[in-house]
Structure formats: C-alpha cells, structure tokens
Amino acid sequence: MLYQTTDDRQDGDRIESNKGRTIAIGPSVKYTNDKGWFLTAKWEQETRVRNRAEGNAYRVKLTIPF
Predict the structure, then answer these.
(1) Residue range 19-64, pLDDT digits in tens
(2) Are 40 and 60 in contact (CB under 8 A)?
(3) Second label for 58, Cα 20 to 30 Å away, from 8, 27, 28, 39?
(4) What confidence tens digit (pLDDT) does each residue in 40-51 have?
(5) Is 43:26 a contact under the CB 8 Å cutoff?
(6) Other CB atoms closer than 10 Å to residue 38's CB: what's the count?
(7) How many folded domains does the chain comprise?
(8) Cβ(45)–Cβ(26) under 8 Å?
C-alpha cells in the first residue's frame, strides 16, 4: 500500500491535489532450508491507482544469515 502524504513539486512549485496512492495484491512463495536461509518470490498487481503509473511488480529476495 502506498499513500503519498505530500504534494509533488515541479521546478520548485508545488502541484496541488496530485498525491499518488495505490494498493498492491498478489501471491508470494517462500522456501526455507534447515541452514537458516530462505528465498521469497512475489507477484503484485496494483489496483485503485491514482496519480501514478499502474503496473505489476515481480520480486525475488534471497536472505542468508551470517
């Protein structure tokens, strides 16, 4: 979820009523092994988008403990 709290600025001037917002929903899959590391894959579809570009997000995250 993204909810912009301040107005955008262009060339130093404030652009009123141009705050972006969106909600992203989608599945994720997580694999964990016995050594403590894990791999997460996510796909998110944006919905209810206002004042910003709309699209999908694909993310892969690998976490390895020291």
Answers:
(1) 889 999 999 999 999 999 999 999 999 999 988 888 999 999 999 9
(2) yes
(3) 8
(4) 999 999 999 988
(5) yes
(6) 14
(7) 1
(8) yes
53: tokens are 């570009």
Neighbouring CB atoms inside 10 A of 45's CB total 13
User: Which two three-digit tokens encode residue 62?
Assistant: 């690998």
Here the tokens at position 1 are 């979820």
Residue with tokens 């600025």: 9
pTM for this prediction:
0.60
| Euclidean distance between CA atoms 55 and 40, whole angstroms | 20
The structure tokens listed for 32 are: 């964990």
Q: Assign 15 to helix, strand or coil.
A: strand
